[in-house]
Structures are given as C-alpha cells and as structure tokens.
UniProtKB/TrEMBL annotation:
It comes from the Eukaryota. It holds the Pfam family PMD. One of its GO terms (biological process) is meristem maintenance. This is Aminotransferase-like plant mobile domain-containing protein. The lineage of its organism: Eukaryota, Viridiplantae, Streptophyta, Embryophyta, Tracheophyta. Residues 1-172 form the Aminotransferase-like plant mobile domain. InterPro entries: AminoTfrase-like_pln_mobile, MAIN-like.
Amino acid sequence: MGLPVIGKPVTIGKDEASLDLEDEYVNSPSKRKIAISTLEGELDGEIGEGAKFIRMFLLYAFGVFLFPNSGRVVNGRYMSYLKNLDAIKEYAWGLALLEHLTICITERKDHHKTYIGGCLIFLQIWSFEHLDVARPKFQLNSLTFPRTCRWEESKTTTSKIKDEFERLTKNKVN
C-alpha cells in the first residue's frame, strides 16, 4: 500500500499527548473517540486547506480506511502523531496497519465477532498475492502502484470463494 514499515513505532497508549483539536472533537473524554460523522461534517464544511484540514483528512483516513472498527469512530490519540505534519513520514504506518488488522482478526476469531475491523483492502491484496483462491487474472502492465492495478476486474461470487477456500491446500499458498 506504499506505507512505510520501518520507522518510529505507532503506539496508541492511554497517556498519549493531546492536541486542542482533539479536545474539540472527542465524544467522551475518557474514551477519546472522534465520530467519523463529525470528521465528515468538518471536511464538508468551510475548514479550508491548512493544517487543520490535513489533520481532519488524515484522521478520517485512519478511521475509515487504515484502522477502521465497528463503531464508526477513530481513536483521538492518533492526534498526537499529527502535531508535526512533517514528521508523519517518520512513522511505520504499514506496520501499525498490519498490527491493527492482526488484532481485529484475532478478536473476530476468539470472540466470535460478526465484524472484522482493520484494513480489509490490504488483506484482499495480500490474499491475491499469496493465496490461489478467487485470484483475479494478473495483468501485465507498467502499473505497479497502487497494487490493485496488477489484477483485472473480477466478478467472483461469495459461494465460489467459499468453495475454493474449502479446497485450499498448502501447495496453493505462496
């Protein structure tokens, strides 16, 4: 996905520093969650193009795309990583995405949750590259990024995918 996996760790602890912006948008100070709907409203409004807009957009991307969960909220503690916008590239966001997805899949498995959180687009791309199940046809073209451009559009049905997973063997995993 083009996110760095080497760099400063992204850790969301209970005592992460806050920004005034977080205080303005959190639903509950004890939980420090910002509703996605609040971010959508801000992005649709007259927020402008400055640092506040960039922070709101990144929080929205965190909550909807990179670190989604079932609650349609984003952890306000991510704001601590948005204080210095120039330093964002120093963090291992790809590793954080993988860790979050792993936690979400484990919770789904261990607690029988009906929702899988995490970046499912990453999981889909990974499965195309590593599992010989419902993989679309590989395209030979010069596009290598985004990685989804490597495959032709596919219209595989859920029942076909389930059947293929049932027949999956070790020799079909790369």
